[in-house]
Each structure stands twice: as structure tokens, then as C-alpha cells.
Amino acid sequence: PVASSMVSLFTDCIKLLHESSKDKLLPSHHGALWLHLMRYCECCTAPKMPEFILYSFHTEFRRLPWKEMHPDQMLMEEFFKIERGSPKSCFLFLGNVLCEINWVSVLADAWNPNPHPQTHSMIVCLLYMMVLLAKEEQLIGKEESPLINLLGQSSSLPWQLVGISSYQSIISYCNSHYPPSVILAKDAAAELIV
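C-alpha cells predicted for Epg5-like central TPR repeats domain-containing protein:
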């Protein structure tokens, strides 16, 4: 109980820092949520991290206003590292957080005549992230799933910036990692995944 209370208090402090500084940041600056998440990726995602500690962290950290965070290439790279070598709960937590973000806002530059190269990279990262998460039953089957919401919004995203080689790589990944039942299923969630 004392440890959970400490994590709760720490989470409240992060939220207060975020609320007090979010209007003072320049567009290129990282806020408290981004810094906190990067620190989480660095310190809490080791393969042997005890699950009961992660449970406390994840339960409390879910309360933070992740919709207001602005991810970047560094954070997405951390997500992909976690997918490959960290506890599954870390991957699901971070995936859930990234699904809550307003990606239409993050990728707003894509509609400019000459979008930044970072925008191209971020849309490719988002596509890979969605493909990795879409096979996770814990996220797809969850009531009011942020992943299902993100998949539903995907028609508003600038997929024209994704190159053919990225699409080919994703199709190859789906062929080797997705069971045919997902691709052939008729339910709404499966249709969104495909």
C-alpha cells in the first residue's frame, strides 16, 4: 500500500508539472509527459522487471492525460525496442498510451505541400505501430479500446506519405505473424485491423 501510494503521488506530480508547463512550451520542446515516458522506457522496461511493480506503475500512469502528449521519432524507437525485448505488459502499456494520442494533430504537417522528413518517418512509425498492436487481443478486445478508436480514425491520416517499400515490409510481416483467421474474419474489429 505504501509503494502504491508513492507511485500515485509521483503520478500526480507528473500531471501537475504537465498542466503547469504545457502552455509555456515551444513547439520543438518536450513536455513533462514525454520526459516521463522516456524515463519509463529507460528504467522500467528491463526484461526482469517484476510484474507486480509494473502493474503498480501502469495502473497509475494510465491516469495521465496522454492525449496531450506529442510523440517523436525517439519515442517511437523506444516503443519498437520494447516490443522486441521487454515484458509484454510494458509493450501493451506503451502501445495503449500511443493509441490515445491525437495522431491527426501530430501529423498535421503532412497536408502541407512539402511536409518535413520527420512527418514521413512518423507516419511510417504509426503504421508499423498499428500493425504490431492490432494482433494483441488485450487491446482489440478491450471495451472502448484506444486501438480500435485509432484504427477507426485511420481514414483521416496521410497514408500517401508511406513508401512502397514500407508497405511491402508490412505485408511481409502480416503474412508471417498474423493467423489467416484474422485476415479472413468477418467481425468489425478484424475488418479494422486489415
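The CA atoms of residues 76 and 125 lie 7 Å apart.
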